[in-house]
Specification:
Strand content: 5-15%
Number of domains: 1
CATH architecture: 2-Layer Sandwich
Helix content: 25-40%
Order of helices and strands: EHEEHEHHEHEHHEHEEEHE
Structural class: alpha+beta
CATH superfamily: Transposase IS200-like
Amino acid sequence: MSRSPRFLPENKNGVLVEVSSRTVNAWALMRPCPELSDVTVGVLGRSLEISPVEIVAICCMSNHYHALLVAYDQQQLSRFMQHFQSNLSREVARLVGWKGPLWSRRYDGIVVSDEPEVQWERLRYVLGGGAKEGLVESPLQWPGVHAARALVDGVPLEGHWFDRTSESMARRRNEDVEEHDFATKYRVELSPLPASRQLTPEAYRDKVTALVRDIEEAEVQHRDGPVMGVAKILNQDRFKAPSKSTKSSPRPRFHVSSPEVRDALWNELRVFQLKYGEAARALLSGELTAAWDFPQGCYPPALPFTGKPAPPTPPPPPTRDITETDSGTLKRGEVPVVEIAGRWQATAPANQRDQEEPRARGQPS
């Protein structure tokens, strides 16, 4: 195996995963601007329809992003990440005129344990984006996509998904195309941490607000000088390497607190890797029956996912209605809105929660 296979431990309540990816050469290709923030949330919303994971938090910096996701199997996480990163890459290339790969390597996915203190610590890390680097005084001031404002204010993230294929075909037919003719507006509600699903939305918002205030106070104490400021962030050179070297240390496989939880996760991973390695070597030697020996929840080399079949791809989202009047002018309707609901379990009985779908799907409104 040239690289370790993706692995998620089994958990019917979902697994919290911290995902991140960095741009090529750590260039500021994702420098914040209103257009990029709009399409980023739109891509996020459409990706949730393709593969309905749960979004706990996300922070998109100029040259990387961090997100906390809840997934129920590796296939679900992989489908979401593939759609999100590939489509965001195309939108960034379209906005900045970049030709080439956007991401320096495949995304990092680190499993976060069920321990509440660990999950809140990772949420603090993601929400601290922008402030902990000395770029802004508060996470609420970051000019790009950031979960801090959405969680503190209790409002969903909003952005537009553009059907670029239909838009391109219409232009080739020499049709009159406006900016949002093939757009869908997405409202993405963030979900709570799995360890805090028993809290009401108001109580969870209060805890996150206190966490953001604590981040602001901590950064003031550790700051050596003035912050970079929003004006300089918006005017930084997209193709200039950062002044400080980026981290290159190995990522941990798990975020845990207690040794017992760490040992249990490592044992589960070792068993998974052992079964995967044995099946891969047998398949390489010509034993075709080894294709059925790969552990559940993995992607064998050049074979389908070893789990339940992937759900069918949902139909394209609704776009603006365009009709032609008797006078020959075009009449354009409103841009449709799709609501992506978060998962809350504060009022559901335990037996009902076990029967719920992994995630509430958004419906056009």
